[in-house]
Amino acid sequence: MSKPPRLAVIGHPVSHSASPRMHQPALDDAGVDASYIAIDVEPGKVKEAFSKMQEEGYIGCNVTVPHKLEAMEICDELTDDAKALGATNTIVFREDGTILGHNTDGAGLSQAILEDFGKSLSELRILILGAGGGAGRAIATQCCREGAPAVYLSNRTIEKLEPIAIDLVDNHGGKLVTTLSTDTESLIEAASRVDLIINATSLGLKPSDPLPLPEEALLSRHMVYDAIYNPPVTPLLKAASEVGAKTSNGLSMLLHQGAFAFEAWFGIKPNLELMHKALLQK
Ligand code: ATR
After folding, report:
1. 101-159 confidence digits (pLDDT tens)
2. 27 contacts: CB under 8 Å, gap ≥ 6
3. What's the CA-to-centroid distance between 141 and ligand 1, angstroms?
4. Between the chain's N and C termini, which has fewer beta carbons within 10 Å?
5. How far apart are CA 51 and CA 118, in angstroms?
6. DSSP state, residue 130
7. Is 160 a pocket residue for ligand 1 (Cβ < 6 Å)?
8. Catalytic positions (predicted)?
9. Measured between alpha carbons, how far is 75 from 84 in angstroms, rounded to an integer?
10. With a threshold of 0.90, does the pTM exceed it?
């Protein structure tokens, strides 16, 4: 007999989401009688979707683009992580009818960097490419919250960075926060001062995309993390490997944010190995 749908990811579009594929084996392994599905929800309809899920006895859901802000506004309560990141990616429908919003993206990034590179964000000088976008800003916020000693923010549209830098310093413990444009000289200079480079731009989704920073900026001592996981090897990661840098892609962030979401729903850790295996199978 098929299991009742009691968890979901909502997004628009959502059919590409890897979350159902990743969570189902972990639910089965934990003996939870639930299936995890993808639900396409149009912008402006998140409240309606939550009410329907609550009526149907859902445990919770994940929230992906473009609903992370809309969902946050509907929650009755937010975790400190969700408050700090200003968005929610994980929802718990409580038995008393209230809705709790988590954000596991930041913790997911932190765990990914720890496992992939053996380093904590608190000990790394970090350059974030695309820090003016939604994903980049969340990454920058997490880096500052964890006490990274220096954070360099770069964005094609540099005007977006000033208010972000001020917020990082005033509200998220940002220490040395520097903003820079995407010109060759600035990027080479900033890269020479950091340990970790994170790509949060959309450059690399297409094989014909240019690198998000000049190739000369990449050094063998760098750790280079690309938030993109499809394709698994972006032009940036290829170029970074070629100079001998350590590299990793966004699959680990996806995995760990999912594992923290599972913990938010059930209070236990999921079988990470099964989730990882499921993500690698397409
Ligand atoms: P969001 O993450 O907010 O949904 P996005 O359109 O996916 O936004 O873009 C993410 C990041 O990639 C942004 O920082 C964007 O830079 P702008 O703020 O200048 O738009 C960056 N980006 C997208 N295309 C780019 C390109 N061709 N060159 C450099 N940066 C680019």
Report:
1. 999 999 999 999 999 999 999 999 999 999 999 999 999 999 999 999 999 999 999 99
2. 7, 34, 35, 36
3. 17
4. N
5. 42
6. T
7. yes
8. 68 (proton acceptor)
9. 15
10. yes
The answer to whether 68 is a known catalytic residue is yes
Q: Where are the beta strands (DSSP E) in 3-149?
A: 5-11, 35-40, 60-63, 77-78, 90-93, 99-102, 125-129
Tokens of 181: 């444009």
The reply, when asked if residue 155 is annotated as ligand binding, is yes
Q: Please report the domains of the chain, with CATH numbers, ordered by start residue.
A: 5-103+253-280 (3.40.50.10860), 106-249 (3.40.50.720)
81 C-alpha to center of ligand 1: Å?
24
Q: What six digits make up the tokens of 186?
A: 């600035």
* Residue 137 is assigned to a ligand binding site: no
Catalytic residue among 68, 119, 175, 246: 68
Report the C-alpha gap between 160 and 137 in whole angstroms.
Answer: 10
Burial 161-181 (b: 16+ CB within 10 A, else e): beebbebbeeebebeebebbe
List average pLDDT for each run of 10 residues in the chain, which is 282 residues long. Answer: 91 96 98 97 98 98 97 98 96 98 97 98 98 95 98 97 98 97 97 98 95 98 97 97 98 98 98 98 82
Whole-number pLDDT of residue 2? 86
Ligand 1 lined by 155 (C-beta under 6 Å): yes
| DSSP single-letter state for residue 121 | G
* CA distances, 166 to each of 11, 86, 160 (Å): 30, 15, 11
- Give the pairing type, strands 150-154 and 99-102: unpaired
Angle, alpha carbons 249-136-189 (nearest 5°): 85
CA 176 – ligand 1 centroid, Å: 23
**Which helix or strand (DSSP H or E) is residue 85 part of?**
helix 80-85
